[in-house]
Amino acid sequence: MTISNTCTLDLNGMTLDLGNNNLTVNTASGNLTIRDSTATTAPIVSDDYSTVTYTAGEIKSTTNPLYAFNAATITLESGKITSTAGQGVVVGYYAAPRLKFSSSFVMNGGYIQSQEAGIFTAYESTAQINGGVIKSDNNGCIMDNGSPGAAGTKGSTVNVTGGTLIADMQTEGCVSIVIYRANKGTLNVTGGKLVSLKGTTIVARSGDVNISGNTEMIALGVVGKLKVNNTSSK
Questions:
Q1: For residues 180 and 141, is the Cβ–Cβ distance under 8 A?
Q2: CB under 8 Å to 22, separation ≥6 — which residues?
Q3: Whole domain around residue 178: which residue ranges?
Q4: Are the C-beta atoms of residues 84 and 113 closer than 8 Å to each other?
């Protein structure tokens, strides 16, 4: 399903089951806002951070439910995004040598639950997290593309001002990472809560990292290997 104009999708308590497909916003004029008018309360995170309770409509897929390509923007106000086997939201795209797309994703509320990365940025894209909950069951909440050339000139920009980001890990011997930066770009964390249930909160192998404000960072569990997009490294 492709969207090429400005529109608002009100889930209205319903489930949009994409199967093995995705919802793509694919042009500079594409501006999709996702909300659920029936969601009267914000997601509630349990005291041990293992479960999230949220009554809302849902977009779900066995792959990556949401793509923002070609300078498009997706904004999540409320509602749930679920990926049972992939990333929750893919922002931008890189495939050498010709396909290089920058896009934007803004999260003001709602809930993203994914098997792999909650948000995956590529090329010179931007992810702005102002609220809501992101939970990755088997990887990191926000990750980028570490391939040579995948960052373009300046790399992606990730701004976290609020919300709760929870990373878990199911793969034996690997650790969870809340935010993983593999390529050049900028990470600004000025608020919110970062929780790693079995590892560490931030790993940056390249780029700039700025942490300030009232950011809360919680790292639990044991140290093992870093699992990044189905690959492991010491």
A1: no
A2: 1, 61, 63, 64, 65, 66, 67
A3: 2-40+58-233
A4: no
Residue in 217, 155, 221, 202 with CA at minimum distance from that of residue 183: 155
In the chain, the largest separation of any two C-alpha atoms, in whole Å, equals: 47
- Would you say residue 214 lies in a domain? yes
- What are the helix (H) ranges across the chain? none
- Please work out, in degrees rounded to the nearest 5, the angle formed at the alpha carbon of residue 172 by the alpha carbons of 139 and 43: 40
Does any domain span residue 46? no
> What is the model's pLDDT at position 99?
65
| Contact predicate 93/123, CB 8 Å | yes
Structure token digits, residue 125:
């894209």
The total number of structural domains that make up the chain: 1
Question: How high is the pLDDT of residue 71?
Answer: 87
> Which pLDDT does position 91 carry in this prediction?
94
CA distance 24 to 4: 9
Closest CA to 111 of 91, 83, 153, 82: 82
pLDDT at 229: 43
Is residue 227's pLDDT more than 80? no
Query: How is residue 138 annotated by DSSP?
Result: S
* pLDDT for res 98: 55
Q: Determine the distance from the C-alpha atom of residue 24 to the mean position of all C-alpha atoms in its chain, rounded to a whole number.
A: 15
Helix or strand (DSSP H, E) at 66:
strand 66-68
pLDDT the model gives residue 172: 85
For residue 153, tell me if it sits in a domain: yes
